[in-house]
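Sample A.
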Amino acid sequence: MWYNGQVISTQEATQQALIAAHGEIRQLKNTIGSMREQLEGAGFREQQKVQHAVAAVNEESSQLRAAITSMREQMESMRLAEQDRLQHAISSSAEEAAQLKAMVQALRDELEGQKSNYEETLKSVQTGARNELKQLQLTILELRDRLEGQHDVVRA
């Protein structure tokens, strides 16, 4: 039998074929091992990429949740501040309305008092004027009587 340009026995040929097959098997095993390592490395890298992507999504989700929570708190704070301002405005308006009502009542009372004083003064003036008129009428009658009496004396 010929092997690599030499004549060899069958047993030697078988043994050399076995050695060559074992070498080829070893090479195939090494190739398979290398490919397995590459495949596992690629799978590991892919898994790391997925984990990084998931971590990035989780981080972004966490940041968005924090932003939403912050905005909700700000909105609630603004709503409470607006309620406080509104309540203060209502309270101030109520106080002002009460003060204005009290002022209006005080002015009414003062006006009523002035009206009452005016009416009393008017009555007093009217009474005085009537009394003076009566007095003047009596004086006129008395003077007329005197004048007529003097006139009668002068005629007689």
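Sample B.
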Amino acid sequence: MKHVTAFVVVIAAGLIALSAAVAQEKSDTTIVFEAANPNLFQSTSSYQPKRNAWGIDLMVSNNGFAGGGFYRKEQSDEIAWFVSLAISDVKDESEVEYYDYFGQSFVPGKKNRLLLIPLMGGVQYRLFRDDIVDNFRPYVMAGLGPTMIYVSPYSTVNQIRGSDGAVFTYTEQIDFFESLGKGRAHYSIGGFVGFGAYFGIDKSTLSGISLRYYYIPFGQGVEVVERKKTKEFGGLYITMNFGSIF
């Protein structure tokens, strides 16, 4: 009986010692988790928003329709610089267009066709950035640069001699593309000021509308209509912008 009691005491003591050791081991255990990809949690502070854009301009003025393209780069949230190229027909305010029986147009007294091709560089400044939501972004803008004034003849003067020796003089309109081949380029410096707004919150496209006033002086003048020289070109243009941001 004494031997059994001693054996039970030894077993009990062993179990107590083992439990204490296990408890001590559990209290000292630390589990460390590591990411499978060390780069997974890197800082994203190097992210840069898209600040470049390019696209087309559709323009309307008293001279009719015009078109062009632009490149735009944001320097900050308020300031962006741009380069634009446009081409526009030029008409004198006194021109009156008529149509003959066959549907062909003609302008009495018109002497030359003019194409205005301004290459402008400038700056835009965004207004009310902290007061208006991003889907409406108003701005003011100004640009300056060289301008080509391409002058080509509108008509040619022809003469025929009658059977009685009399000479008849008449004018004949020159086809537009044929006229371009007979034209001559002149150059000047011009500029414009304007205001407008971009619309939408899509970060991949750019669309908006602006009102611009162009002023392009040309000292020697050009005869758009007979006996009248035009020395200033430009005027108001409503411009619609469509582009892509990258």
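B remarks: The longest strand covers residues 205-225. The helical segments are 2-27, 176-180.
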